[in-house]
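Case 759 in the screening queue. Each case pairs one protein sequence with one candidate compound; here the compound is zinc ion. For every case the pipeline is the same: read the inputs, emit a complex structure as tokens, and attach any notable structural observations.

Predict complex for case 759.
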Amino acid sequence: MALSASLGFPRMGARRELKRAIEAYWGKSISREALFAQTADLRKTRWLLQRDSGVDLIPSNDFSLYDHVLDTAVMVGAIPARFGWTGGDVDLDTYFAMARGGQVPAMEMTKWFDTNYHYIVPEFTSDQAFQLTSTKPLDEFREAQALGIQTVPVILGPITFLLLGKTKGADFNPLDLLPKLLPVYETLLQQLAEAGAKWVQLDEPCLALDRTEEELAIYQEVYTRLVNHTVLSISLTTYFAGLGNHLTAALNLPVSALHLDLVRAPEQVEQLLSLPQWPQDKYLSLGVIDGRNVWKNDLNYSLALLQRVAAWGAASDRIIVSPSCSLLHVPWDLDTEKALDAEVKDWLAFAKQKLAEMEILKTAVNDGVENVQTALDDNRAAVERRRTSTRIHNRLVNERLAGLTEDAYTRTSPFAARKSVQQARLQLKPFPTTTIGSFPQTKEVRKARADFRSGAQTKEQYEAFLRSKTEECVRLQESLGLDVLVHGEFERTDMVEYFGEQMDGFIFTKNGWVQSYGTRCVKPPIIYGDVSRPESMTVTWSSYAQSLSKRPMKGMLTGPVTILQWSFVRDDQPRETTCRQIALAIRDEVVDLEAAGIPIIQIDEPALREGLPLHRGEWEAYLKWAVDCFKLAASGVQDETQIHTHMCYAEFNDIMPAIQSMDADVISIETSRSDMELLDAFQQFSYQNDIGPGVYDIHSPRVPTVDEMVFLLEKTVDRLDPSQLWVNPDCGLKTRNEEETVKALEAMVEAANIARARY
Ligand code: GLN
Ligand code: ZN
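Case 759 output:
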């Protein structure tokens, strides 16, 4: 019989119960015991839901109070010395301190592959010791067992765990630690087997990335060893990318099951079918349901694929039907979306609905199509309704895209010529000062917005409030002596949502939360159709702000790649096409801002780098269209309109040619935390355009001193020509309070004045 597996389920609960429980614990309003009781309820709900949906391989230990990579670090005793751990069980407060900091700095956090989920980065020293310090996988297995549910413990595989970490002190290959780490995994597997587990799922997403021959040999060695040490059946999961030319190496691993992501890398099916025979005794877990997106599966298509693979191997009993990856990355339950547009809702499936899809597919494989004919027919009809919906297709958008010529992607004159006409218009001092856009989103601002949404404030009242905040912000910037002003972004909750709400082709859910990090969730917009902009989106606010001051006002937009990257994107056309449509909408806005007399327009692209494909071989193609989209958005204006862009957290070394070809007049970047070292890339590349390296870290409440910023400016001048430089904070100020902001900006303006006198 074919089996089904869910690989992992969302943790938060249908109403983000986990967030509430943990935050209550942090706020000391519930006890440790209460937290445990509430999370046990949630785990139970998740297991029952999966059992009742017919899932055969139900995961345990996919749950976490913060992050599964942190759980793994804690489990193997990789607890950095600064947390003062002396052995034994790691208590809950130490665990949270590792994630969030306390007396000592937290561990670093970074994005989990190309998702918007962030994991805690393990830290390894060259004399790193490991020991099994936690019974979490065992406890959860038993907890489910007590409910009469046999689960598959999910453990982050040892190789991926090490590869995701960073080395501290000495520079060494983290894989050198394997001989010390593996005994811990062996003990764990043994304990799980003794407790009655049959299967264990070892997640090895790193196997699907670019790997050297040597690393592949390590995989072979490690999994041979683990398999020899355990009676458990090991299911090894890869996801987010295809195995490419190491598919055969992966199939040769002596594990019982191998999971393939067939949504991201459907070509793996042909690769499989070209093999001489079914990999001996192995289960193949075929990830046909998209674990990264919210669309209803085309079940007839998936079934045909499953049947082809089964027929090739004469092996329908060796198939596991599964999502492409853990369902962690999709929202919990579509049924809770009572207010969602019914037509679009019919096209969607969240985690719970995906379990039902799996069950239909599994039944069709095992018992024959006739047993699920109605479900398959209904699904075919829904897929067809979506495909032919007039809501999706906008002829004008596509005609416009098709009609674009090369000149839509380039500014009229080269940078040097633009720079002089812009300077003639703007008359900026050297080292011009500015900010990245948002000003503090205080309690007052959030309350006004909540009141407006709940109806407690009228639109007129709310807008009057926003105008007064904007005016206050403009006056503040004038009195601080900033050169290029912003309106403060008080009208925006979120830099993607604000635009998505005003464009056609987007829809928003009420409960479509996905975990971003810890208790923090995001609710990505869903792009379901051709994107266009019926009316201007920001002109009113920017013009109002400009009307208050003689100083140049900078209009503030989110770039097409960032809007794409932070949304659930339609899967019926290439992401690139959707991105170009968004770029056209943003272009229209840029042109409208220019026409309204706004002399400077910033198009934020903080997510440009995170969109890079996991395989390096695909980088070039991605960067080509991503940069094209930025240029399409930016190039509709005259030479004298200055285009800025902003990027955060970026490592620029390997993408400098792309950054240069964006040809923004000014780019502001986050550099202060790296002591301006990030600028080396710009120096080595001889970056031509202007640049505003952030001179202080807005992520910290600490007010920077003038000296510190002068010091950073000196480092900047060492690397770049003073005539290229702008002075600004690292990122938007929305998370800071007003007092910190005023002090920090005062000091920043003073630092700029010192630089002006010096250079
Ligand atoms: N303009 C945005 C702001 O200031 C930019 C935020 C970002 O880059 N993440 O908030
Ligand atoms: Zn930023």
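Case 759 observations:
- The CA atoms of residues 339 and 429 lie 52 Å apart.
- The radius of gyration is 27 Å.
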